[in-house]
Amino acid sequence: MTQEGSTRETREFQAETKQLLDLMVHSIYTNQEIFLRELISNASDAIDKIRFESLTNHELLEGNSEFEIFILPDEKTGTLTISDNGIGMTYEEVIKNIGTIAQSGTKAFLEKMKEKEANPDNELIGQFGVGFYSAFMVAEKVTLLTRAPGKTKGIKWESNGDGTYTIEEVDKDKRGTTIILSLKEEYRSPEKAQESFLSQYKLENLIKKYSDYIRYPIKMNITIEEQPKDADGKPVEDAPLVQRVEVRTLNSMAPLWTKNKQDITQDEYHHFYKNLFHDWEDPLEVIHSKTEGTVEYTSLLFIPSRAPFNFYNRDYTAGIQLYSKHVFIMDNCQDLLPEYLRFVRGLVDSPDFSLNISRELLQQSRQLKLIGKNLEKSVLKTLSNLLSKDRPKYEKFWKEFGKSLKIGVYADPQNADKLKDLLLFPSSHTADGSTSFDEYVSRMPEHQKVIYYATGKDRASVERLPQMELLREKEIEVLYLLDPVDEFVVEALRDYKEKKFQSVSRGDLNLENVDAAEVEKKTEEIYKENEALVKAIKEQLSDKIADVKISNRLKSSAVCLVSDDTGISLSMEHILSDMNNEMFKARRILEVNPNHAVFTALKALHETDPASETFKDYCDLLYTQALLIEGILPEDPISFANKIAGLMAQKEKMD
Ligand code: ADP
């Protein structure tokens, strides 16, 4: 017990944190230097928080509003200290934030690591950003001192990166957080200055490289050696050099976006982006614009090259940074861009934003809405230009973020018009690339009236569909909808340039290049001839299907399952049932191929004894085959297997 009645507690890290720490401590990761970026970025976030809260509660600042981050290398103790006067942490917060992994990102990181069974490589750490724990890549001991505003006591947290940490109350004058890294031998040796994180030169460079655009000054005591000067200010030659210490701000904090476009190089944009948004890859596109008029603002937007690992998860925080006259207001403003453009990163700086505006008020702000509309337009225009001028780059974008646009189409019909020309799908006519609707339509022969599509889990399984055979023979292009959301997209669009979308597995095929009336007449004739048989099959399967039809879309397959135009499709039923929605069922129609030997066999069986067990088994088997072709498992696989086995045994007897 200390005098104040507080005890030092030793606590265990959560199991997952232990794993992560273990990885950090023993990592052979070559990019250890990013620990500094991570700690500085935490410090900057902590200052953002107090600055924002102090707008409504000025007392929190305790008279200390010169926000800064201080870096202090100390050769004597072999420590590197990073301090901020941000929001600090309470006892409970330290335990919650530092002792456990709350971030799903870190969990995902660990899972990826296990999957790879490898050491974390640059890409992985770059992508996930393991935050505070990265300190253990370079430090054998980490001490964290912190005090939240208004608290009389601070907290000291300490760990060697093994399974435990200690935590206790201590005195701490200044509000904020100080992190003291007792560097590992190899990172503090003066002989190996290149690797030493105590080297002034190295620290200066790292801050320029990773943290130049941090919005608060990152300061360090810089030792300057110089020639002594005489009374007139002239250097005294031959005299030994004298040392002078000067506090210097190492980051430029330059609001790049305020410069003229012509004066900014591609490299500067990229460096800025990576710095600000912690990406390790250059952005795919940069959109920088200045607008004056009803609202005045500058925007600098980026389309990333790669979707963050959690982009399609709920916990991904999208949003744009807001500034007013170059002063940061807030991060992740989500009201500016529509949901489907949530992959866009960047910032908007407008003198029309008020500094201490609340999120709620901001949402209603007219300026924000206006700016949002403009930004949406300019992003869409950029994408559309990319599609027409740099297809490979657009395809790269599409691979990463296409799904977001597709979700946009069906989430809100108003988006459909804006987005339909930006959509790409694989097709039977593009071996490995994809096609836009416009390209598809331009290839359509005049007599083709609809846009065909087929759904499946991948190219190969779509191409195997019995329904595809006839279309392939007639060289009709079919779009391959391989993503579960795709079918919802075409349903939402209904048509493109007045051409309806038509599933190869639904309703009438509308094959206009064959004489539809002729085909229909023939199918009708076959039906008449086999009416009793068709009805018998339907009766046998009545609890499973809505109808049985003579097919005119099959060639070599005996059966297929289709759905009619009245309800949802089979693939949609699939998706909905995956989402635990059993409400909607497709109207299943079994189509049988009258030209197939199985049909003849069935017919013969029916003629001899329509009530025989064999006929019933055949009907069941036929239906199950159709299910399997669609990728649906039979309800009773054992009975299916037994029936097949029975048939095989019979065949053996006959032979
Ligand atoms: P992240 O910063 O990505 O959330 P970290 O592991 O780096 O993950 O940090 C975990 C949490 O600890 C932060 O979210 C923050 O709440 C808290 N924290 C870290 N550094 C500081 C700091 N310098 N000042 C105040 N809080 C901090």
Describe the structure.
The chain has four domains: 2-221, Heat Shock Protein 90 (2-Layer Sandwich); 256-399, Ribosomal Protein S5, domain 2, CATH 3.30.230; 423-503, Rossmann fold (3-Layer(aba) Sandwich); 516-654, Four Helix Bundle (Hemerythrin (Met), subunit A) (Up-down Bundle), CATH 1.20.120. The strands form five sheets. A nine-stranded mixed sheet has the order 1-6-5-4-7-3-2-8-9, with helices on one face. It is α+β, with helices and mostly antiparallel strands and 655 residues long. The chain contains 21 helices and 23 strands. The N and C termini lie far apart (92 Å). Residues 1-5 have low confidence and may be disordered. A hairpin with a 5-residue loop joins strand 10 (285-291) and strand 11. It binds adenosine-5'-diphosphate (ADP). Adenosine-5'-diphosphate (ADP) binds at residues 38, 42-43, 46, 84, 86-89, 97-98, 103, 131-132, 177. Residues 38, 42-43, 46, 84, 86-89, 97-98, 103, 131-132, 177 line the site of adenosine-5'-diphosphate.
From the N-terminal CA to the C-terminal CA, the straight-line distance is: 92 Å
| Shape-level CATH architecture of the largest domain | 2-Layer Sandwich
The level-1 CATH class of the largest domain: Alpha Beta
Beta-strand segment tally:
23
Gyration radius from CA atoms, angstroms: 34 Å
Count of discrete alpha- or pi-helical segments spanning 4 or more residues: 21
Question: What number of structural domains do the residues give?
Answer: 4
- Side by side, the strands of the main sheet go 1-6-5-4-7-3-2-8-9
The low-confidence parts are 1-5
What's the CATH superfamily of the largest domain, by name?
A: Histidine kinase-like ATPase, C-terminal domain
CATH topology of the largest domain: Heat Shock Protein 90
Named once each, the bound ligands are: adenosine-5'-diphosphate
User: Strand-residue fraction?
Assistant: 15-25%
Structural class: alpha+beta
Oligomer: single chain
Binned, the helix content reads 25-40%
Describe the sheet with the most strands: 9 strands, mixed
Mean model confidence by pLDDT: 87
* Overall 3D shape: elongated
